[in-house]
Amino acid sequence: MHVIREAEAERFQLPGVEFTGLAAPSRGSAGLCTWKLTVEPGHGGDAPHTLDRDEIFMVISGAVSLGADKLGPGDAVVVPAGEPISLTNLGEGPAELYVAITAGFTGYMADGTAVQPPWAK
Fold it and tell me: Which end of the chain is more exposed for a tag (fewer CB within 10 A), N or C?
């Protein structure tokens, strides 16, 4: 068993978004990646990206939109592989979500650039 404590977890920053790395191959999980996503108020409108695997978003707090879907605490959405993803915080405070995806996925930015984010390694 591999315990990952949020207070000690590695954090990764992008403009308006913080990724708290939880389960991943480098942290004891061969098959699944999870992270906590904190989205600052007003963040959104980034160019959509896609993934080669299904990705699941589970809202802990706040209100967000993922495409045309508006989500609040307790809501979850499964984004099928290949579907464009663009996340917007609809609230006045930070939004928090848990995200899960199969380990070893590849993301594709709007310009087609392939990425494997460090929080999922």
Answer: N
Q: What is the CATH number of the domain that holds 95?
A: 2.60.120.10
Give the whole-angstrom CA distance, residue 37 versus residue 21: 9
**C-alpha span between 93 and 83 (Å, rounded):** 27
pLDDT in tens, 75-113: 999 999 999 999 999 999 999 999 999 999 999 999 999
Whether 86 contacts 67, CB under 8 Å: yes
Taking the model in full, what pTM does it have?
Answer: 0.93
> Is 48 in a helix, a strand, or coil?
coil
Q: What residues contact 80, with CB distance under 8 A and at least 6 apart?
A: 54
